[in-house]
Design a protein that fits this description.
- The complex is a heterodimer.
- Chain A has a single domain, classed as Rossmann fold.
- In chain A, 35% of the residues lie in helices and 18% in strands.
- Chain A has 13 helices and 12 strands.
- In chain B, helix 1 packs across helix 6 and helix 16 crosses helix 19.
- In chain B, strand 19, helix 16 and strand 20 form a beta-alpha-beta unit.
- Chain B is globular and about 85 Å long.
- In chain B, the strands form 6 sheets. In chain B, strands 3-4-2-5-6-7 form a 6-stranded mixed sheet, with helices on both faces. A 5-stranded mixed sheet of chain B has the order 12-13-15-14-21, sandwiched between helices.
- The longest helix of chain B is centred in the middle third of the chain and has 21 residues.
- The chains are: A alpha/beta, B alpha/beta.
- At the A-B interface, strand 1, strand 2, helix 4, helix 6 and helix 13 of A face helix 1, helix 6, strand 9, helix 8 and helix 10 of B.
């Protein structure tokens, strides 16, 4: 029974205030990422988001695979699942299906998602189960010490491609936008924290799978990789639209290129996704009406012992031989 | 169930068949074989079900070609069913066939060459080929017919095609029910019961189709009554208890429901998939979900995710899929996530023989996944056991936070057998997801010193936040860079297996408690081995058998049992080197899987015999092995 009296409401508000978890409450340990690693920015944005959204730490799960990005759950004071290489998405799908009450976040990298786990990436987009998927794309394998990744630009010198990588890098945005049931696609850069935060927040409120490609600096192995974007604000296009994000005046002064882009327009989204120069930052595509596989599967999910008994009885009746040899 | 209005011919109403001398026999092995797609399997399954419902002991075996549509009239294309029916309980497919219904002579020759027919076996052969417009077909039919007769088979030509054409334009869809009618007549089974079974078999089809099939059934029944001087009676000894007739994969699926699991994630693979087909049909009725994942690895990790979130899940596969899941299974072992994995074994290695029987996955399930990854492996030994093993597996998985593998095989998957109707027990079900507060200071891997057990932390439990990892971790779940912590984890996970082992009961010996020879088996071969032992004991041999359901951990008391026998050998369906091969000796002989496990654990000189022919083990084969082993022949 909810107490709507003045005292009752006051007490309720006080309790909410008491239970509110501050940023420190979501922090755990000292991140072991390199100084200047873009993963730190993602971690900070997420801890802020959890506080702002008032999420309960015990009701929140961060799922990851293997790689630098995938260490993130270790630094969140929530439940975390640091699994095996490439398989963060199916693990997160299982969690989502079993527990609609949990907040599910996935932190993965370009090797984890676009190489060893590539099949899961495409199918996760198609399943459109509610979760926020962040791909920390630094265009290199970091934890295993510098090997070319699927998104490494052609010519990337690495320990496995000492003469420069042979192939053009894969564009994860155009691929994602080509998958049936895609419902939320965004691109952000770790060095623009305001957009990073706003996009993750919008993604969290999206009723489906939100896919965020985070352009992430790796100062250790790819120190100059994003310099062209980092040092020249004219090489960045900030996306805005009345139905998605707005650009703050401060940010608008820093980045001269603004583009009003309606995120419901998938054809335009695909065009933008294929542009690298200037790089589009913001929400490329958003369709809140795409059906969620987790909801479809759980449409009539009411598990009970009575239901099990009834079903077993019905099935056994179908295949029964009655004692004494006469049929049922 | 309503029945159609056709009149049933009364006994004695027609001359030949109705008045036929009825021979009473204790059991018969019947085969129905056709080209793929002609429905012989459906005929055989229905025949088995009718006999079971009459009160006969029944075991059916599917005869499956490797291809979906092998060429018509090919020796390798035989598709159908073997039905062994008897007065008492039947536990395996038996030896050679007593009566065969064949839709063409080529598929029949396949069975003849494979020595699946008893000498003098009765063959009901479709006669349409004799006058076929293609002279080479007509010639090959005539040649085969003459050869079969010359070999002593009793071949009866039956104009199935001609008779069925009176009722349906396409006999590829219908001849099977005509054959079913004939068999019901020959074995004096109740036609009303057969009608009822036809309605059940085609329950998902239209009413018109059920009626057509019923007319074909009755036509076959009446034709046989009128024209066949052939009648057998297998006295039925109905069980006192209610029975259900299921195949192994259906029993597995019902076990999943009964265990209270709510999530099954799978990827299609022969011969496991039919379990998921059936589960997909029934699971939503209890709020369960079958997720067909994008691949085997996703199927396994999806199940792991669901289990981690509090609902123990199952993934169902066969050998190649199991190999793909190995890394994920290791994660579940390492992070102590309950998980049930069903492996319906097929011939291996690699793609191997997808539709054929083999027990080749024992060692890979016991030892598989890199590093030390202790898992529980349960091998059901009958259709009934397929049902209960899943319930047991779920309970062990959640009690010990372990991976439990249920090791079925292609033989159990499609074989049908009646067994006592299970009585639902609420204790089978999984408890609700534990969302209670974690006491302050309790760590997720606070391993008990004696048992290695720790509380299962589930998201949603306040105070229990930790990051699960597949990396070596300490009791807090934090990544352990210190080798001692890793050793502590290895120790605890191994103790859990020992703790489970302490709860297992010693299996009972079939036959005397001591003797000259103990035959040990595991999994689907139980029926054939025990029947062979019974025959050998009737011959006066001092042989007993022991059948293992838990293959990892092995229950205690096995050494003591083995010590009471002069010799011990396993009978298995996986490769073991043949000691009479010229370059094989004790220094290089590779023993079969269970023999290897028993030899290494108990230091007992366990011999082994195995067969990897892809067919269910026959009691006659085992009988000969026992006889030879004990120096008689």
């Amino acid at each position: 029974m909810i107490d709507f009296s003045r005292d009752g409401v006051a007490e309720c508000l006080l309790r909410l205030y008491d239970e509110r978890v501050e940023i420190e409450g979501f922090q755990k340990g000292v991140p072991r990422w390199c100084a200047g690693c873009g993963d730190n920015a993602v971690l900070a944005a997420l801890q802020r988001l959890l506080r702002d959204e008032g999420l309960r730490p015990e009701k929140t799960v961060f799922v990851s695979g293997i790689g630098c990005s995938s260490r993130l759950p270790h630094y969140m004071n929530t439940y975390g699942f640091h699994g095996i290489h490439g398989r963060a998405l199916p693990v997160a799908e299982g969690i989502r299906l079993a527990r609609p009450d949990l907040n599910v976040f996935v932190n993965t990298g370009d090797g984890d998602s676009f190489s060893i786990g590539a099949a899961h990436w495409l199918h996760a987009i198609r399943y459109n189960m509610r979760m926020v998927v962040m791909v920390h794309d630094n265009q290199i394998y970091g934890l295993t010490k510098k090997q070319a990744s699927p998104t490494s630009p052609r010519g990337t010198k690495s320990n496995t491609t000492p003469r420069g990588s042979y192939l053009e890098g894969l564009n994860p945005l155009t691929v994602t936008l080509g998958v049936q049931n895609v419902s939320f696609v965004a691109q952000v850069a770790d060095w623009i924290p305001e957009v990073l935060y706003d996009v993750i927040q919008a993604a969290f409120h999206h009723d489906g799978l939100s896919f965020i490609r985070i352009v992430q600096r790796c100062p250790e192995w790819m120190p100059d990789n994003f310099d062209r974007w980092l040092h020249d604000p004219a090489k960045v296009t900030l996306l805005h639209h009345p139905t998605s994000l707005s650009i703050s005046p401060a940010l608008a002064r820093l980045y001269p290129n603004h583009l009003e882009h309606d995120p419901s327009n998938i054809h335009r989204a695909r065009e933008l996704a294929s542009v690298q120069d200037p790089v589009p930052i913001g929400i490329l595509y958003h369709d809140p009406t795409v059906p969620r596989y987790d909801e479809i599967l759980r449409a009539d999910a009411t598990h009970s012992g009575t239901a099990v008994r009834r079903l077993l009885d019905a099935e056994f009746d179908k295949f029964a031989v009655q004692g004494g040899g006469t049929r049922v | 169930m309503t029945t159609t209005s056709e009149s049933v011919p009364l006994p004695g109403a027609h001359p030949a068949g109705a008045g036929a001398q009825v021979t009473t026999v204790p059991e018969h092995v019947v085969e129905i074989i056709s080209d793929s797609g002609e429905g012989a399997q459906r005929c055989g399954q229905s025949f088995g079900a009718i006999a079971a419902r009459t009160g006969n002991g029944v075991w059916t075996v599917e005869i499956i070609p490797a291809e979906i549509q092998p060429p018509a009239r090919s020796v390798a294309g035989a598709s159908g069913n073997r039905v062994r029916l008897g007065s008492s309980r039947i536990t395996n497919g038996g030896d050679a066939a007593d009566l065969v219904v064949a839709f063409n002579e080529q598929v029949l020759l396949g069975r003849v060459h494979a020595n699946e027919l008893k000498p003098g076996c009765t063959i009901l052969l479709e006669s349409m080929w004799r006058a076929h417009r293609n002279p080479s077909i007509a010639a090959s039919y005539a040649e085969a017919f003459d050869a079969l007769v010359a070999s002593g088979y009793r071949v009866v030509e039956v104009p199935m095609e001609r008779e069925c054409r009176k009722l349906v334009p396409d006999t590829r869809r219908g001849k099977n029910m005509f054959a079913l009618g004939m068999l019901c007549s020959i074995y004096r089974l109740d036609l009303d019961l057969a009608r009822d079974q036809v309605a059940l078999t085609f329950r998902k089809k239209t009413r018109a189709l059920i009626e057509t099939n019923t007319r074909l059934l009755v036509a076959g029944y009446e034709w046989a009554r009128e024209h066949l001087d052939l009648a057998f009676h297998i006295p039925a000894a109905p069980a006192a208890q209610d029975q259900v007739v299921l195949n192994g994969n259906m029993a597995l699926a019902l076990g999943v429901v009964a265990s209270g699991m709510e999530v099954c994630s799978m990827y299609p693979i022969t011969p496991a998939t039919s379990a998921s087909h059936y589960l997909s049909e029934i699971f939503p009725k209890v709020g369960g979900v079958v997720h067909q994942a994008e691949d085997e690895i996703a199927a396994c990790t999806f199940a792991i995710g669901a289990s981690y979130a509090g609902k123990c899940a199952v993934t169902i596969t066969s050998g190649p899929g199991y190999s793909l899941k190995q890394e994920a299974i290791g994660l579940a072992v390492m992070a102590e996530i309950p998980l049930v994995v069903v492996d319906v074994q097929r011939g291996g290695p690699s793609t191997g023989q997808p539709t054929k029987v083999e027990q080749g996955d024992l060692l890979t399930t016991v030892f598989g996944s890199h590093g030390d990854a202790p898992k529980v492996v349960i091998a059901p030994s009958s259709i009934e056991d397929c049902f209960y093993s899943v319930i047991t597996a779920r309970r062990i998985a959640e009690t010990f936070n372990m991976v439990v593998v249920v090791l079925s095989d292609a033989s159990l998957a499609t074989a049908q057998q009646p067994f006592p109707r299970p009585e639902f027990d609420p204790a089978w079900l999984a408890p609700p997801v534990d969302q209670s507060q974690v006491p302050e200071g309790l760590a997720p891997y606070a391993w008990d010193e004696t048992t290695g057990l720790s509380r299962r932390f589930v998201p949603g439990q306040p105070g229990g936040m930790y990051t699960l990892t597949g990396l070596a971790h300490d009791t807090a779940g934090s990544v352990a860079y210190d080798p001692d912590a890793n050793e502590q984890g290895l120790h605890a996970r191994s103790l859990k297996l020992a703790a489970l082992q302490r709860t297992l009961t010693t299996p009972t010996v079939h036959g005397d408690e001591s003797g000259d020879l103990l035959v040990i088996g595991w999994g689907s071969t139980k029926g054939a081995i025990e029947e062979a032992v019974d025959r050998a004991r009737d011959d006066g041999l001092r042989v007993s058998s022991l059948h293992l359901r838990f293959v990892n951990p092995l229950p205690s008391g096995l050494k003591e049992i083995m010590d009471r026998f002069g010799r011990v050998m396993t009978v298995e369906g996986n490769w073991g080197d043949r000691p009479d091969d010229r370059i094989i000796d004790e220094s290089n002989r590779r023993y079969t899987a269970l023999a290897m496990l028993l030899r290494s654990r108990y230091l007992v000189d366990v011999d082994c015999w195995s067969e990897v022919g892809g067919q269910p083990l026959k009691p006659g084969r085992v009988h000969r092995v026992i006889t030879r082993k004990l120096g008689r022949s």
